[in-house]
Write a structure and sequence with these properties.
single chain; alpha+beta; six-stranded mixed β-sheet; two-stranded antiparallel ribbon; 3 helices; 23% helix; 42% strand
Length: 149
């Protein structure tokens, strides 16, 4: 009987993983790190997705979060905190350094959805905020120089 109930729940759960609209990104915080970008993604999910993620784990949320980054290469979903609706995503090798050691991330690659708020936290403490967009602003970041001891 229990197996039948779990089997009945598995079908909607599988359907929930295929639906991108079950995850709604509310905010992203971007931290440039050399050629990479580190994202903290704040999201909301509908009632059924939340219930299924509590039963079956974060794997239910993973496709919806990854779908937002579908146009990017080298994407890694590092963690999903279901209790606080926060995910960590790393995108590697987004930019190459110029001769001065600066990495510039242009806005050629778009997210698959519009993000209500994107905050870029630069290493110098500046925060750049853009709203209601599917693209990152142009970001320049210089890696700290290594000093010899």
């Amino acid at each position: 009987m229990i197996l039948l109930m779990l089997g009945t729940l598995a079908v909607p759960a599988m359907a929930a993983t295929a639906q991108d609209s079950d995850i709604h990104v509310t905010k992203m915080v971007v931290e440039p790190s050399g050629p990479d970008l580190h994202f903290t993604v704040y999201y909301e999910s509908d009632f059924f997705t939340r219930v299924f993620s509590l039963i079956f784990g974060a794997k239910i949320l993973q496709p919806g979060i990854e779908h937002v980054f579908a146009n990017f290469s080298n994407v890694s979903l590092v963690s999903v905190d279901q209790n606080n609706n926060v995910a960590k995503v790393y995108v590697k090798n987004v930019a190459a350094p110029d001769k001065g050691g600066w990495y510039t991330y242009d806005k050629d690659t778009a997210f698959t959805v519009k993000i209500p708020v994107i905050e870029v936290h630069n290493a110098d403490g500046r925060v750049v905020t853009v709203t209601d967009t599917d693209r990152l602003p142009i970001i320049s970041n210089k890696m700290p120089a290594l000093t010899k001891i």
